[in-house]
C-alpha cells in the first residue's frame, strides 16, 4: 500500500516557474520545473537572497536516521511541518518512516491533497467543520489512518459533539504534559481521567499515549536530561495504567509517541521496552533531515553522544554583499524575511567559489539585510551562510533549489523542492 500519492508528488515537476518563486531567474519564467532542470542550471545563475538544500547531506541524514531507528527498535513518524514539502515527505516514507506527523488542520489538508495515508497530528483538533471533514476522509478511504491528541475532558466533549452523526470515528492519544511545559495533562491522574472520557465518548477511540519533551530540555545539560527522563517515565507509567484498564480495546495498534529532534535517544531508551505485538513506540524527529549549523548541531544525539556518524547540515543561505560602508562591516541582501533567527543567527562560512570566512560573524538581521562583521569581502561577493533551526527556514521559501554539492565552486541545481505553508 502506498502511503503517499506518488503521481500527485510527480505532478509538481510540471508546475510553471514565475515571479512567485524567489531567486528563480526571469529567463526561467514560463518553463516547468522539469524543463528548467533539464537545462542543468548552476547556483551562480540564481539570484540572492537564496536558501538551498544539499543533495548528499539529505541522503546521508535519511540513511543515518533510518538505521538508528531500526537499531533502537522504534518507529519514525517525522514531523512534516518542518518542511511542508510533499516530495521530502515521500523521501521520509521511502526510507522507512511509518507515518508523517503534522501540526494543524491546514497542514492535514495539504497532506490529504497529496494522498498521505498515515498521519499523526501532534495537536488537539477542535474545529467542528474540520472534524467532520476528517471523519468523511476516514470513511471514504479505509486505508487512511489518523490520530490526534487530547488533554482535557472538555476537549473530549467538544470533539465528540462535533462528530455526532459523522460517518467514521476519530482516533486520539491522551497527551501527558508537565508543569511549565506546553500542552498536555499535568498529572497522571488527570491523564487517566481524560483517557476514560475518550473511551466512553461516541465518535472517538483511544489509540495511545503522546507527548513532547522538548520544552523540558532547552539544552543538553544534566538537569535537562534528568527532566526529560523523568517525564518519559511518567509516559511509560501512563501507558501501563491505561493498558491495564483495557482502555485501548477498540484499536488494533497502540502508539506511545514522543521525541523531537533533540532527545529521541532518551525517548528510545525509556519507551522502547513498551513495544510488543500491539504497541508501537514512535519518535517524531523532523529537523534531522535538513539538520543545521546551529541549535540542532549542538543538541542532536548524533553530535552530543557520538551515536554514529553526525548528521550533516543540508540547508545553506546565500546572500550578496550590497554595501561595505565602513571598515569591518558589510551588509548582505538577506534578512529575517529569508533566514531564521529564533534559535541563533546565521553563521558566515565562505565566499561562493572562494575562501572561507574564518572569524567572521553576523551580528544581526533586519527585514532584508544582514550585518556581516570582520569578513574580507567586496561588494558583489556572494556569501554562504550556515543556519540554525530548519523549522523556521523552510516556511520563508515556496521553492528551494537542491544542489549536487554545496561545497563545489559552481554547484549544479539538481532539483527544486516545493513547500506548502
UniProtKB/TrEMBL annotation:
<dbReference type="InterPro" id="IPR042208">
    <property type="entry name" value="D-ser_dehydrat-like_sf"/>
</dbReference>
<dbReference type="InterPro" id="IPR001608">
    <property type="entry name" value="Ala_racemase_N"/>
</dbReference>
<dbReference type="Pfam" id="PF14031">
    <property type="entry name" value="D-ser_dehydrat"/>
</dbReference>
<dbReference type="InterPro" id="IPR026956">
    <property type="entry name" value="D-ser_dehydrat-like_dom"/>
</dbReference>
<feature type="domain" description="D-serine dehydratase-like">
    <location>
        <begin position="314"/>
        <end position="404"/>
    </location>
</feature>
<comment type="similarity">
    <text>Belongs to the DSD1 family.</text>
</comment>
<dbReference type="InterPro" id="IPR029066">
    <property type="entry name" value="PLP-binding_barrel"/>
</dbReference>
<dbReference type="Pfam" id="PF01168">
    <property type="entry name" value="Ala_racemase_N"/>
</dbReference>
<dbReference type="InterPro" id="IPR051466">
    <property type="entry name" value="D-amino_acid_metab_enzyme"/>
</dbReference>
<protein>
    <submittedName>
        <fullName>Amino acid deaminase</fullName>
    </submittedName>
</protein>
<keyword id="KW-0456">Lyase</keyword>
Amino acid at each position: 500500500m502506498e502511503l503517499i500519492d506518488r503521481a500527485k508528488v510527480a505532478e509538481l515537476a510540471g508546475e510553471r516557474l514565475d515571479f512567485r518563486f524567489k531567486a528563480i531567474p526571469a529567463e526561467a519564467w514560463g518553463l516547468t520545473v522539469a524543463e528548467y532542470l533539464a537545462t542543468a542550471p548552476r547556483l551562480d545563475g540564481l539570484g540572492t537572497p537564496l536558501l538551498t538544500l544539499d543533495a548528499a547531506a539529505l541522503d546521508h541524514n535519511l540513511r543515518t536516521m533510518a538505521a538508528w531507528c531500526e537499531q533502537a527498535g522504534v518507529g519514525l513518524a517525522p514531523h512534516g511541518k518542518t518542511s511542508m514539502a510533499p516530495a521530502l515527505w515521500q523521501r521520509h516514507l521511502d526510507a522507512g518512516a511509518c507515518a508523517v506527523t503534522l501540526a494543524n488542520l491546514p497542514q492535514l489538508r495539504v497532506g490529504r491533497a497529496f494522498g498521505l495515508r498515515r498521519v499523526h497530528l501532534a495537536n488537539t483538533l477542535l474545529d467542528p467543520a474540520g472534524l467532520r471533514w476528517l471523519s468523511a476522509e476516514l470513511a471514504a478511504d479505509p486505508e487512511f489512518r489518523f490520530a490526534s491528541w487530547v488533554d482535557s475532558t472538555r476537549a473530549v466533549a467538544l470533539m465528540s459533539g462535533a462528530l455526532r452523526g459523522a460517518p467514521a470515528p476519530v482516533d486520539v492519544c491522551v497527551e501527558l504534559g508537565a508543569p511549565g511545559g506546553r500542552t498536555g495533562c499535568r498529572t497522571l491522574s488527570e491523564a487517566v481521567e481524560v483517557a476514560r472520557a475518550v473511551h466512553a465518548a461516541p465518535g472517538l477511540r483511544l489509540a495511545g499515549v503522546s507527548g513532547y519533551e522538548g520544552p523540558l530540555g532547552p539544552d543538553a545539560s544534566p538537569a535537562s536530561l534528568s527532566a526529560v527522563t523523568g517525564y518519559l517515565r511518567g509516559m511509560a507509567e501512563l501507558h501501563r495504567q491505561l493498558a491495564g484498564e483495557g482502555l485501548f480495546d477498540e484499536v488494533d495498534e497502540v502508539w506511545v509517541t514522543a521525541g523531537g529532534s533533540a532527545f529521541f535517544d532518551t525517548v528510545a531508551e525509556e519507551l522502547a521496552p513498551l513495544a510488543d505485538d500491539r504497541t508501537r513506540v514512535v519518535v517524531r524527529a523532523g529537523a534531522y533531515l535538513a539538520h543545521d549549523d546551529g541549535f540542532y548541531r549542538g543538541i542532536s544525539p548524533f553530535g552530543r553522544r557520538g551515536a554514529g556518524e553526525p548528521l550533516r547540515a543540508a540547508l545553506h543561505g546565500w546572500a550578496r554583499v550590497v554595501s561595505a560602508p565602513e571598515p569591518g562591516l558589510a551588509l548582505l541582501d538577506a534578512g529575517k524575511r529569508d533566514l531564521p533567527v529564533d534559535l541563533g543567527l546565521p553563521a558566515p562560512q565562505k565566499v561562493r567559489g572562494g575562501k572561507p570566512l574564518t572569524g567572521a560573524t553576523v551580528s544581526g538581521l533586519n527585514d532584508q539585510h544582514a550585518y556581516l562583521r570582520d569578513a574580507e569581502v567586496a561588494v558583489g561577493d556572494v556569501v554562504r551562510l550556515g543556519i540554525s533551526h530548519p523549522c523556521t527556514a523552510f516556511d520563508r521559501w515556496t521553492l528551494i533549489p537542491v544542489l549536487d554539492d554545496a561545497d563545489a565552486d559552481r554547484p549544479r541545481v539538481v532539483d527544486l523542492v516545493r513547500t506548502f505553508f
